[in-house]
């Protein structure tokens, strides 16, 4: 389904006066509100194709109805999100959950919604019916060369699909690891992974990157071969300039200082970008900002400071993507909430008085440093986000409009109550 432009205009008209009052109030306290609005308009967050269906857990899956049944329908859902918030102009595909048979047609269909293709993701953590060898004991780290070769070839095939869609990065997440001590020689597993990744690296087009994702545990519960940022950084350093480390917020052990990791990867030019989500325990894939919005703000504070220090373009220098999937929420509503949370944290970080913070740090004025950060964090920037959306042609309140048009009911009518999307 597509949202008529007039619906957005009517919605905005009905909220305009209240919005203006709220915006004027907050704008008065911001020194360069126009600069912030411009950055917010430019800032786009990719949507993963697997987040458009109701996510499963290993205990069950409960479809919410009207899920996209094909790549085209996934693209249409991202198109709907983008029409509402003007902040999600790309989609990230996962092969073979998504097979873009006819790239020219798929690209044209996506561009009809103002969308392009973000990183492509390979999948060597599940066996496919057609494959010769099983990934039960891993893929790129496997002791058997034939299995490694199969996984390498799959990644090269994913690059080919991506190149046809004008993607510019291959995202690799491996479940490779071990469940019991003694199962695996950890050094051997790491060396084989590096060797396999080198073959994939050689197949990358010149203007491509490979993003190496890490995760401490699950599905393996004793060791994961790319288990933390150190292991990913080691691999991406050995591979070369086109390899970088991808930070998925849910892939850290409890209370890890993620902002410090981000700051150092950025310093080394090795930060590929993000998979945004939130978590309380582990890889919970909860809605961004639903558990720990302050941490998200602190991450953005490191990003804004670090990128500005290096003259990097906030919107384009690294990859911004959501990676979340839910059992109980409408996926489109959840994604709208996630995008909003990311942009709130970004806008708040843009409000940090950096020169004053530098001074407080020089003076070892710890109290003042905290005051400066929290002054920005406690500012209600939502009217600034709404103003940016309004100027970009989106809705003042995307979630309210999505609900108000009963869009999900229309999707259920079009696709059926039992429609189930491909994904985890
Ligand atoms: C599994 O943990 C995972 O959530 C990783 O974060 C990947 O990015 C994603 O699946 C898709 O492969
Ligand atoms: Mn991820
Ligand atoms: Mn994950």
UniProtKB/TrEMBL annotation:
GO terms for molecular function: isomerase activity. Keywords: Isomerase, Manganese, Metal-binding. It comes from the Bacteria. PANTHER family: L-RHAMNOSE ISOMERASE. This is L-rhamnose catabolism isomerase. It comes from Mucilaginibacter gynuensis.
């Amino acid at each position: 389904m597509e949202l008529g432009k007039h619906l957005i205009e009517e919605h905005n008209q009905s909220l305009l006066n209240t919005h203006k009052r709220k915006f004027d109030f907050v704008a008065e306290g911001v020194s360069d509100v126009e600069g912030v609005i411009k950055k917010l308009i430019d800032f786009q967050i990719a949507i993963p194709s697997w987040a458009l269906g109701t996510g499963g857990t290993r205990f069950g899956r409960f479809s919410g109805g009207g899920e996209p049944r094909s790549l085209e329908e996934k693209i249409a859902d991202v198109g709907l999100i983008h029409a509402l918030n003007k902040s999600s102009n790309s989609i990230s595909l996962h092969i073979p959950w998504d097979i873009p048979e006819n790239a020219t047609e798929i690209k044209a269909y996506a561009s009809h919604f103002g969308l392009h293709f973000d990183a492509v993701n390979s999948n060597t953590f599940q066996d496919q019916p057609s494959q010769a060898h099983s990934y039960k004991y891993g893929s790129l780290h496997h002791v058997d060369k034939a299995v490694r070769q199969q996984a390498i070839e799959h990644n090269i095939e994913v690059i080919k699909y991506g190149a046809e869609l004008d993607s510019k990065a291959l995202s690799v997440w491996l479940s490779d690891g071990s469940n019991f001590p003694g199962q695996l020689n950890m050094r051997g597993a790491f060396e084989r992974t590096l060797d396999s990744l080198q073959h994939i690296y050689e197949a990358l087009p010149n203007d491509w990157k490979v993003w190496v994702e890490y995760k401490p545990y699950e599905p393996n519960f004793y060791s994961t071969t790319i288990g933390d940022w150190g292991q990913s950084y080691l691999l991406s350093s050995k591979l070369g300039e086109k390899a970088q480390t991808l930070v998925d917020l849910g892939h850290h052990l409890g209370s890890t200082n993620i902002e410090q990791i981000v700051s150092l990867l950025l310093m080394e030019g090795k930060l590929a970008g993000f998979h945004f989500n939130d978590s309380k325990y582990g890889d919970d894939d909860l809605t961004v900002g639903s558990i720990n919005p302050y941490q998200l703000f602190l991450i953005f504070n490191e990003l804004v400071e670090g990128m500005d220090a290096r003259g990097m373009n906030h919107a384009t220098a690294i990859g911004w993507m959501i990676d979340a999937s839910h059992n109980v929420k409408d996926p489109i509503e959840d994604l709208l909430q996630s995008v909003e949370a990311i942009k709130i944290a970004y806008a708040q970080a843009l409000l940090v008085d950096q020169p004053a913070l530098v001074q407080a740090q020089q003076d070892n004025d710890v109290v003042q440093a905290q005051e400066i950060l929290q002054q920005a964090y406690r500012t209600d920037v939502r009217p600034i986000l709404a103003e940016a959306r309004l100027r970009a042609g989106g809705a003042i309140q995307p979630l309210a409009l999505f609900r108000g048009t009963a869009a999900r009911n229309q999707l259920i009518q079009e696709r059926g109550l039992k429609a189930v999307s491909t994904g985890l």
